[in-house]
Amino acid sequence: MAATILLYAGVLTVAVVLRAQSTGSGQTTPATKLSFDVISIKLDRDSNVTPAGGLPRQSNGGLFHVTKRPLMDLISGAYNLSGYEYRAVKVQLPQWAWTEYFDIEARAAGNPTPDQMRLMVQSLLADRFKFAMHYEDRRVPFYALEVVKPGKLGSQIKPYASSEEPCATGPVQIQTVAGGFPAICGLPQRLEASQPGLTRFGFRNVSMEQLAAYTTGMGELDRPVLDRTGLSGAFDLVIEYDRSANNNLQTETTVPNGPTLFEAMQKQLGLKLEDKTGPVKTFVVDHIEEPTAN
Fold first, then answer.
1. Are 77 and 61 in contact (CB under 8 A)?
2. How far is CA 75 from CA 71, 90, 129, in A?
3. How do residues 57-70 score in pLDDT, each as one tens digit?
4. Are the C-beta atoms of residues 84 and 224 closer than 8 Å to each other?
5. pLDDT in tens, 244-253
6. Angle CA 115–119–125, to nearest 5
7. What pLDDT shows up at residue 4?
8. What's CA 93's distance to the chain center, in Å?
9. In what order do the strands lie in the sheet containing 225-227?
10. Which end of the chain is more exposed for a tag (fewer CB within 10 A), N or C?
């Protein structure tokens, strides 16, 4: 690893050259971490700068660029944290990790996939911020995502079929395909709701495990959601609910515009969230440092 120290507008910037080791055949060994070729990091204290950038959803030639983002956002993207995990990790970090803002530009050779870029950002965090973490099982409350009636799902979910409409691989002009499902696969897509006051999310080509992880953020839930459906394969689905009618925040005076997330899960998808307690794989932060010039 080679480091180059640069100075932009009086702000110390570190450009680090990182290269993955490979075998004699030119193939990267399984134990080798994926890394960017060049990284530039600088602190951004300009109040007029608008936050921008993040992990790409499609391959983009190996460019990773963020402007005025807290380190907490990088950790969340690199480890694909759910909404619950985001809140749980944030309280483990020093204040600067979510109140200081950074401009980061990194480049990798070739045209890595979004998943490979995610691993490269993990390497960036470890090398430049000395970030270290581990997972451990802890007994905590959680919601189990289960099927209401075995063998039967709701009207707004179906198995994914690539033969019907291929997943979009770049910017799209149309937001949805036949059935109202999003054109882009994988990550949740915010869709136009049927009426004011409701929130509508679409998913395409996602597993039940992925849906469970995203559900914590969709409902701003106070505990993780784990897949206990027993369903394999990928699915397309659309769910619409009143986000303000969060079950953890409702009061007797709440007048909902539509179903809660819990109700929408059952009526629209044929799934339910059951309150459980048990061992849950938990993200634990071991170490973190502010970036230095060496």
1. no
2. 6, 10, 11
3. 788 999 999 999 99
4. yes
5. 866 544 455 5
6. 140
7. 32
8. 18
9. 225-227, 132-147, 271-287
10. C
Q: How is residue 283 written in tokens? A: 């993200």
| Structure token digits, residue 57 | 């959803």
